[in-house]
Amino acid sequence: MTIPIAVLMVEDNRGDVVLMQEAIQSAGLPYNICVARDGVEALEFLRRQGKSAGAARPDLITLDLKLPRKTGMEVLDEIQLDSTLCNIPIVILSSSVSELKIARARREPPYNCMAKPNTFEGYVELVKIIEAFRKNAQKEGAS
User: Fold this and answer.
1) Prior bond to 117 cis, omega within 30?
2) 94: which strand partners?
3) What are the strands, taking DSSP E only, across the chain?
4) What CATH number does residue 61 fall under?
5) How far apart are CA 35 and CA 12, in angstroms?
6) Domain count for the chain
7) What one-character DSSP code corresponds to residue 116?
8) DSSP annotation of 62
9) β-pair partners for 90
10) Residues in contact with 124: Cβ distance below 8 Å, sequence separation at least 6, in sequence order
11) d(CA 45, CA 89)
12) pLDDT digit string (tens) for 75-119?
């Protein structure tokens, strides 16, 4: 029996959420996805506050940079400063190449910056890359 992998997807675009979920299903990955629609909701989920009081700690976070209420960069900064969260692997996603360059320059592992695909096939490839990244981060964390 495969143990589900808890993934927090921080994304405000419903279309991107659906594409990612369908790509995960198509790739046959045992992901259990929780979605946070903005940066404030993401941090509440991670800190298990409010309606997320019973939330499980995610094994992986996918983080959009363009979010309402609190940007992805602000969320990332808060995660990096929190010793209980900073070791969760993070995949930063954006449609903006310039934002990805800034994120790459400012951050330390375990994270990965990737451009959002614009096709379903691109999302299937993206989830395969995300899974490889997660496995690698898991190995590094175990050593």
Assistant:
1) no
2) 115
3) 5-10, 31-36, 60-64, 90-94, 111-115
4) 3.40.50.2300
5) 9
6) 1
7) P
8) E
9) 61, 111
10) 23, 26, 27
11) 16
12) 988 998 999 998 899 998 887 666 766 666 665 555 688 889 989
